[in-house]
Amino acid sequence: MSQEKLKVLFAASEVVGFAKTGGLADVAGALPKAIKKLGHDIIVVMPRYYQIDKSQLTKLEAPLGVPMGAMGELWAGVYTTTLAQSEVPVYFIDYERYFGRSGLYDDHEGSFEDNANRFIFFSKAALQLCKMLHFTPDIIHANDWHTAAIPLLMKTRFVHDFAFAKSVLTIHNLQHQGNFHKNIMDVMEVGWDHYNSHEFESMNSVNLLKGGIMHADAVTTVSKKYAQEIQTPEFGFGLQDHIGAHSDKLFGILNGVDYDEWNPSVDNLIAKKYDIDDMSGKLECKRDIQRHFNLEVRENVPLIGFVGRFVEQKGIGLIATVINGLLDMDVQIVMLGAGEKWADGFFGNVAYHRPNFGLHVGYSDGLAHKIEAGCDMFLMPSLFEPCGLNQIYSLRYGTLPIVRATGGLDDTIVNFDEHHQHGNGFKFYDAAPEALYYTVLWAVEIYYKDKAAFKDMQERAMKEHFSWDDSAKSYEAVYQYILNRHNTPKPIL
Ligand code: ADP
Ligand code: GLC
What we know:
The protein is α/β, with parallel strands linked by helices. Helix content is 37%, strand content 18%. It folds into two domains: 7-256 and 468-483, Glycogen Phosphorylase B (Rossmann fold, 3-Layer(aba) Sandwich), CATH 3.40.50; 280-463, 3-Layer(aba) Sandwich (Rossmann fold). Strands 1, 2, 3, 4, 5, 6, 9, 10, 14 and 15 form a ten-stranded mixed beta sheet that branches. It has a six-stranded parallel beta sheet with strand order 18-17-16-19-20-21, sandwiched between helices. Helix 1 (23-37) packs across helix 18 (468-483), helix 10 (280-292) packs across helix 13 (365-374) and helix 11 (316-328) runs parallel beside helix 12 (341-353). The protein starts with 6 loop residues before the first strand and ends in a 10-residue tail after the last helix. The relative contact order is 0.11. It binds adenosine-5'-diphosphate (ADP) and alpha-D-glucopyranose (GLC).
């Protein structure tokens, strides 16, 4: 493959270290570094949310003009710094009216009403930024609905500046498509002829992701299994046929792990570091979690953790149905997350009544690391999961995942096989409470009755390596393919 240096603009609505609500931020903070390591020139752009401290950033002198239809040109500030432990520049689009509020997409009252304007503005600002920096990208890499207008903007409103650039749209979660009133066609300024059932129109409104899928030169999603699943009614959220029609440009590329951050041998956020050759630190981490959640401090009890958004996707309905049954086993369970109000209340009530259950409602990066390190098993019974990062982090911490076989969970977790002593976790298939219950029961039995098998499995898990370098090479192959440089063949991904 040619080692030609490509210029890439990576646009994301969140980037770890600056603003994060989920895995998209982890990807946006790590993948660009791996692409840079391959020798490419990549820059990242994101909004400057209120929570991002400007005093830590460098301000660029010139303001950025962003055309917004009838609103005329709006003027944004631009700040910059680099991604942690790298030389990848990150640019922040600063516009008080859209981003100067707490919350990235919503607050306690729900989604922001002007989300369409906010992210169309951001998408256009990302393109204007390239012009301002005299950065002529070969590839513009957009992510999720927030930046899904970019592929068409490049071909219409901004065609003079991006005539030779190609676009990639990565779908991290098909559930969120960016559905808005059709009048936002005027804000996009791409022409109403693109408002039709093959492009942006869906049920009499605009669907940004749908249009992005149509216009991107390549569409990727974050695991191979999910790339298949989203072409079916069960996982397609109404877009299955549209995606199927574009499957010739769809690729599944599994996310990697930033092992500078998620690794018990270097993790400064956990009680004691450890690794395969000396696991004593893991026990210290277990005690730390037991103390943190006011659980009985005991070595020989399976401690099961959950970290994630409390939304249906993550299988919290399944957990809620069986939680009391699970807690009747001799186990301890801890959960960190926040989201749907019923779940915050429901699990709060369980925590009040059950001494072997601990709950932290909220967002805490430090506690997420401590749970990964201190638990024996990690619960992820998702109804769907495009990739899922926590189960992969868990492997590195020797915390065996208990997962439902869907999307990236199915691609990364190999079910324990008692006869061949094979596998790195426990898997179930039906999205049914009994399936979850009996799989946890099975894992708990192995924990108590076959310590050697459990320990071997932990070792196998810790030895696995999900490298961003490999993922970056796959993205590079897609970039080369759509640029059609040197007749690059279609990558098999
Ligand atoms: P998703 O992006 O669907 O939320 P992922 O598994 O890809 O799921 O990524 C979730 C990321 O967000 C992980 O890094 C996880 O540790 C983190 N995370 C989720 N909820 C919380 C929370 N309440 N506190 C801290 N980190 C969280
Ligand atoms: C999404 C998905 C998750 C994935 C993450 C990063 O939020 O829900 O499965 O790991 O994006 O790609």
